[in-house]
Specification:
single chain; mainly alpha; 2 domains; 75% helix; 0% strand; disordered N terminus; 475 residues; globular; 22 helices
């Protein structure tokens, strides 16, 4: 009888916990929706200057984002209320080494594929000459910085290069004496970082998922529209390596190293600051999970308290990286926030609402149709819109299978990156958001879905690469 009473009490306690989780989830969801709807209404009433089609697109975009949040909150609350799950203990180092060299070959294949498209497009030239195509976007700015560092006087186009962060061009500047050509050095660094990022991404995913899911994630990473940017002398590959490595060591509870990597990421791209959100999320998660609360009293000694203080203090390194960039701004221009002025004056760039981005992107797309400017429409506005909307749909479909901190990272990154008031590089910005590739893998477990998405994204990759080669406003 005592056994059955114990089981009944245990069942009752479980039901009570489930009810508490449901109530808390509903409360958080309702509060977030109220704030989000208020912000959207404010934009619609005060800030919306778009056409009816643009406003309709903003409504759809906001609704998709809200739907992702509604699906995410219960998963988040349930995860924090559950005991810590065991990570996969499989040795992934040997497989990661193989993946490193495979992705090096993929990087070389991308460069050769772009060269082939140049020949097909009638832009063929000797291979060394053809490589100059890779300087057609922001690459040229990074290479200028690597060669001359930041300039305090001179032509306006050189002064505004202060908006590009130093993490990547500094590597080129340090390693170029070994190679003697800034373009080649940049492409070699990008290729090595891309391969390293793939190896670390495989190890990260294998902590929770199967080998097949990890490999499929890497496949989608390589065929996303704009994946050719990983071979470009720009900061995409380095940032992906740093962000994925940050998450890996975060999962291994090496808080100090994770924060150091995030600091280098914030020294490489301003969006590296977003990594502070999932880092803090994982730190809090460790402290409030039942497994942590059930520790014996002996664990709450001074040593453990100091470890916890050190853990949260490590978060400062994320901001120190960006602080180093602000110091360069001060040294060069006398104002630590000079980059914000240049972004506003030269690129009309500031932070806005991401759903406003959906609105003006639709308006510009319609304008291009009216003006019959198909190159800008196909190379710029349509790819941006495809990524803005499809990324949310993909995450909504996969969110229940994702670790909550990965979704938190996506949400925070999406708000900032897509919230740009003059977004020209949507596919490139979302390319380095690894939860997106993982989400694609998770929704592709059925063979038919896997094949359909693989074919679709391969076609998009080829078309977008062709547009890049022919300079159809692909940035």
């Amino acid at each position: 009888m005592a056994f059955f009473q114990f089981e009944a009490d245990k069942s009752h306690e479980s039901e009570k916990t489930a009810d508490d989780i449901k109530k808390l989830s509903c409360t958080i969801t309702a509060a977030c929706l109220i704030i989000f709807i208020a912000l959207f209404y404010y934009w619609l009433a005060v800030k919306a200057y778009s056409s009816p089609a643009g406003r309709f697109g903003a409504i759809i975009n906001a609704a998709l984002f809200a739907a992702l949040g509604v699906r995410f909150v219960p998963i988040w609350v349930s995860d924090w209320a559950a005991a810590e799950t065991e990570k996969n203990k499989a040795d992934t180092k040997s497989a990661a080494v193989k993946i490193f060299f495979i992705l090096l070959l993929v990087d070389i294949g991308i460069i050769l594929f772009i060269y082939l498209l140049q020949i097909i497009s009638g832009k063929g030239a000797p291979f060394p000459e053809a490589l100059k195509l890779w300087t057609a976007t922001d690459s040229g700015h990074y290479l200028d910085i690597a060669r001359d560092w930041y300039l305090s006087t001179g032509h306006w186009d050189r002064l505004v290069q202060l908006v590009f962060l130093p993490g990547y061009p500094l590597l080129i500047r340090l390693l170029n004496p070994l190679i003697g050509n800034h373009l080649y050095t940049g492409m070699i660094i990008s290729g090595l970082c891309f391969a390293g990022a793939g190896a670390m991404l495989y190890r990260l995913i294998r902590l929770d998922y199967s080998h097949e899911i990890a490999v499929r994630t890497l496949k989608f990473l390589c065929i996303l529209p704009g994946a050719f940017f990983f071979a470009s002398p720009m900061s995409e590959s380095l940032f992906l390596l740093l962000s994925v490595s940050c998450f890996y060591y975060l999962r291994e509870k090496d808080w100090f190293l994770a924060c150091l990597l995030a600091g280098w990421a914030s020294y490489t791209r301003s969006l590296g600051l977003v990594l502070a959100v999932p880092i803090l999320f994982e730190m809090i998660s460790e402290d409030i999970k039942p497994a942590s609360r059930e520790q014996p009293p002996e664990s709450a000694n001074n040593a453990d308290k100091w470890k916890r203080i050190f853990k949260y203090a490590s978060l400062l390194f994320v901001f120190f990286g960006f602080g180093g960039y602000l110091f360069i701004n001060y040294q060069v221009a006398g104002n630590p926030f000079q980059f914000l002025i240049y972004q506003k004056e030269h690129w009309s760039q500031s932070l806005g609402f991401f759903f406003n981005t959906a609105a003006y992107q639709i308006d510009y797309a319609i304008s291009c149709v009216q003006q019959q400017d198909l190159h800008t429409l196909m190379g710029l506005w349509l790819p941006n819109l495809l990524c803005i909307f499809s990324s949310l749909v993909i995450m909504i479909a996969a969110v229940k299978k994702l670790r909550p901190s990965y979704t938190v990272y996506f949400l925070a990154y999406y708000i900032i990156a897509i919230g740009a008031t003059w977004l020209l590089s949507g596919p490139r910005y979302l390319l380095i958001l690894f939860p997106l590739s993982l989400a694609l893998s998770l929704i592709s477990e059925k063979r038919r879905t896997n094949w359909l998405l693989t074919i679709a994204y391969s076609i998009f990759f080829v078309l977008y690469s062709y547009m890049f080669v022919n300079r159809w406003s692909v940035w």
